[in-house]
């Protein structure tokens, strides 16, 4: 099918302010969608109320309404603009719910505005717990025993019928808001009133709990021709019971057998076809680690945080493709860099996502993790091994952590440590590392945490390297150093463990040719020549990044993960500065590690390096790219902190001079 010519004006609804559970991923998706629709010649009207996003920039849409995202205001805009269509699946749960309300109230019918992409019936089927359960049962897809309740009394009766433990899932909410696990009636009563109050339709699903199963997600995309592909699948390191946004996630899955992988892939494609989803969609599964039994947890008939991660992990622009599908184009008609969009990506590397929590700001907050999301943002790393990727992700968090030794549990007795393993919080992998140092059995750790033994073994590889470096001490040899760098131990951690100075480690590396090489993300595991200028580092590999260029080159430092006090306003600034430099004829290079943002989209800068923002990681890039100058003032505090290191590398700081930055930032000098 060719794109539609009977529609001219399209309304896109944004996702409003950043809240926990809804961060910059919708700014990224929305921006991509608006640009894709404009590229196809449509007039794009955008409604969003967040001033810190690129999405509300005048360059992105033809008209921007900075208005409250409420039914009343949206109805006014629709009546005034009379758009031919609305794209509902791009603005997260906010945009989806508003589009559904406009339809329910008859505003769309009155203004002859249609919903593009996934239809309202399909959205209802995916979002309404009862309808979704009925659909799964009809398809023969296994769903958990569950009952829908609209009052606290009904819910209590449902819990008794199903039997504890149960999980509460409010309908039409985001990030698990209002949900939770209850092991008994007392815990249940503590949750139910809030769950009902937070659901916009006052509906809660009471479901049998399967805490401890593996949680697996598939990011799938389908067009009106019924062509459907999986962009990638993801495995949560944490088992079912912890919101996927709060889990360490690895992509592609690492512990599934081929049979399990294909079984869940088939199920995801069956579901997206039965729901008649048109565009991107996320399917979540619970898989029994001891059998081939699985359950469908839920389907998000829209782009989500997972689709931002999947896009960056695979180099496949899900939101852009979804927007083009919504106007009638099919996957085989949408060209990507070097393949049509109907080509299923293949990954020859490992992507690790780590959530960033606000507990450094709120030390007294409840740090227990469950079905309600608590992370404010996330970082992503790309490497050729999971253990190397985890080390890169840890130091990308910017929470004064650089390895599995960053939190000290050595003061606990074995019994206390075992007790600590039962705690599900943001420091769990550090607790596991301490247990491994003490020789705790893999099986014991697995029984308590339900984390797959494969992941526990990978953590052990890092612990064994700590021991090997300590043992070598000042007699460190090149072979051990090479292996430590392969699994991404930073120089300063190696220095701390061996007792050598950091510059001695660096000199030894360079003397033995142990340097970071940069590989390209190419979506098709090198089956075709890649053209995406999008790189990640790994040691002991061939370099694929070309440093030479005729043009003057500017390095733009991004702002890392979203946290309280540093949001997407710096991403907005980084992107704008990049565009401005490009306009003036400079070559631009961005370094950032946040998968949710526009700055890490592959077509913003001439080159993108998905790397931690630390002096050592940045220096590896500087050695290859040799920039003529660097810009630190657009990446917030993260970039400013790298000023001194860049000057030592001989990179001129553009804009405000470093000493003037110091004069403003240092209280004494100020």
How would you explain this protein's 3D organization?
- This protein has a seven-stranded antiparallel beta sheet with strand order 14-13-10-11-12-15-16, sandwiched between helices. The chain has a six-stranded mixed beta sheet with strand order 17-18-21-20-19-22, sandwiched between helices.
- The longest helix has 20 residues, at 453-472.
- The model has no long low-confidence stretch (mean pLDDT 91).
- The relative contact order is 0.09.
- The protein has 670 residues and is an alpha/beta fold.
- Helix 20 links the parallel strand 19 (553-557) and strand 20 (587-592).
- Helix 1 (25-39) packs across helix 11 (318-326), helix 13 packs antiparallel against helix 14 (428-437) and helix 14 (428-437) crosses helix 16 (453-472).
- The protein is 38% helix and 17% strand.
- It contains 24 helices and 22 strands.
**Based on CA inertia axes, which overall geometry fits?**
globular
Radius of gyration, whole Å = 25 Å
Average predicted local confidence, pLDDT: 91
Strand order of the largest sheet: 14-13-10-11-12-15-16
Strand content is 15-25%
């Amino acid at each position: 099918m060719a794109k539609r010519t009977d529609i001219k004006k399209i309304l896109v609804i944004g996702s409003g302010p950043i809240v926990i559970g809804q961060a910059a991923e919708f700014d990224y998706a929305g921006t991509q969608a608006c640009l894709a629709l404009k590229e196809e010649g449509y007039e794009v009207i955008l409604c969003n109320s967040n001033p810190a996003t690129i999405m509300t920039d005048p360059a992105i849409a033809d008209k921007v309404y900075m208005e409250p995202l409420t039914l009343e205001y949206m109805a006014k805009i629709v009546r005034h603009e009379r758009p031919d269509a609305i794209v509902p699946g791009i603005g997260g749960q906010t945009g989806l719910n508003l589009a559904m309300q406009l339809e329910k109230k008859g505003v769309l019918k009155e203004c002859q505005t249609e919903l593009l992409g996934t239809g309202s019936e399909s959205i209802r089927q995916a979002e309404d717990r009862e309808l979704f359960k009925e659909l799964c049962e009809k398809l023969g897809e296994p769903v958990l025993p569950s009952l829908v309740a609209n009052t606290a009394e009904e819910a209590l009766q449902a819990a008794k019928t199903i039997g504890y433990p149960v999980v509460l899932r409010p309908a039409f909410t985001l990030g698990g808001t209002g949900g939770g696990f209850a092991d008994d009636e007392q815990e249940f009563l503590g949750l139910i009133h809030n769950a009902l109050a937070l659901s916009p339709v006052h509906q809660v699903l009471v479901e049998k709990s399967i805490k401890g199963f593996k949680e697996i997600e598939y990011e799938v995309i389908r067009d009106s021709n019924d062509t459907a592909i999986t962009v990638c699948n993801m495995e949560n390191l944490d088992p079912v019971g912890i919101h996927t946004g709060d889990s360490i996630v690895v992509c592609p899955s690492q512990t599934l057998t081929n049979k399990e992988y294909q079984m869940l892939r088939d199920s995801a494609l069956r579901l997206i076809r039965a729901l008649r989803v048109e565009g991107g969609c996320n399917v979540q599964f619970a898989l029994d680690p001891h059998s081939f039994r699985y359950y469908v947890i839920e389907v998000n008939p829209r782009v989500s945080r997972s689709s931002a991660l999947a896009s960056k992990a695979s180099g496949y622009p899900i939101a852009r493709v979804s927007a083009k599908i919504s106007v009638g184009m099919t996957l085989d008609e949408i060209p990507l860099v070097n393949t049509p969009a109907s080509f299923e990506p293949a990954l020859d590397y490992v992507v690790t996502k780590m959530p960033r929590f606000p507990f450094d700001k709120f030390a007294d907050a409840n740090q227990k993790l469950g079905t309600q999301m608590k992370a404010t943002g996330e970082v992503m790393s790309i490497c050729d091994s999971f253990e190397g990727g985890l080390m890169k992700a840890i130091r990308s968090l910017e929470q004064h952590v650089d390895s599995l030794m960053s939190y000290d549990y050595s003061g606990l007795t074995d019994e206390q440590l075992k007790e600590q393993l039962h705690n599900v919080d943001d420091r769990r992998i550090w607790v596991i590392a301490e247990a491994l140092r003490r020789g705790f059995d893999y099986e014991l750790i697995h029984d308590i945490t339900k984390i797959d033994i494969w992941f526990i073994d990978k953590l052990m590889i890092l612990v064994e390297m700590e021991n090997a470096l300590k043992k070598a001490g000042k007699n460190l040899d090149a072979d051990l150093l090479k292996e430590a760098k392969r699994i991404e131990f930073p120089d300063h951690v190696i220095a701390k463990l061996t007792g050598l100075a950091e510059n001695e480690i660096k000199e030894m590396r360079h003397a033995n040719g142990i340097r970071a090489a940069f590989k390209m993300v190419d979506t098709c595991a090198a089956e075709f020549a890649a053209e995406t200028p999008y790189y990640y580092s790994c040691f002991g590999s061939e370099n694929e990044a070309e440093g030479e260029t005729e043009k003057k080159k500017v390095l733009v430092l991004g702002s890392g993960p979203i946290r309280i006090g540093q949001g997407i306003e710096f991403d907005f600034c980084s992107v704008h500065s990049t565009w401005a430099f490009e306009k003036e004829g400079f070559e631009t290079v961005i370094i950032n590690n946040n998968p949710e943002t526009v700055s890490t989209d592959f077509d913003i800068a001439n080159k993108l390096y998905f790397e931690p923002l630390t002096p050592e990681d940045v220096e590896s890039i500087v050695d290859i790219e040799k920039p003529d100058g660097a810009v630190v003032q657009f990446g917030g505090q993260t970039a400013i902190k790298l000023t001194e290191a860049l000057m030592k590398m001989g990179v001129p700081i553009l804009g405000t001079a470093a000493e003037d930055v110091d004069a403003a930032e240092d209280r004494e000098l100020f």
